[in-house]
Amino acid sequence: MRAELRARRLDAREVADGYEFSYPVEPEMIVKLAEFVTLERRCCPFFNFALGIAAGAAEIRLTIGGDSDVKAFLKGQQG
Known about the structure:
It is a single chain. The protein is α+β, with helices and mostly antiparallel strands. It has one domain (2-77). Helix content is 43%, strand content 30%. It contains three helices and four strands. Strand 3 (48-52) and strand 4 (59-65) form a beta hairpin. The longest helix has 17 residues, at 27-43. The radius of gyration is 12 Å and the shape is globular.
């Protein structure tokens, strides 16, 4: 699932406590991101997740963050 999400990602940017990822607003992408968050919460309960779609937006925003250790871990996972 991670490889598919990485391939569909439009943008990634650093935010104060982690990273924000952008994806196309498509029904199947919303479901895939929700599944991803559900699975990641099982192995990484220390992550903070926010999934948002603003009215009229062309992108879904997934923010993953936490303390400084989480941010360092996420930085190592980029690619």
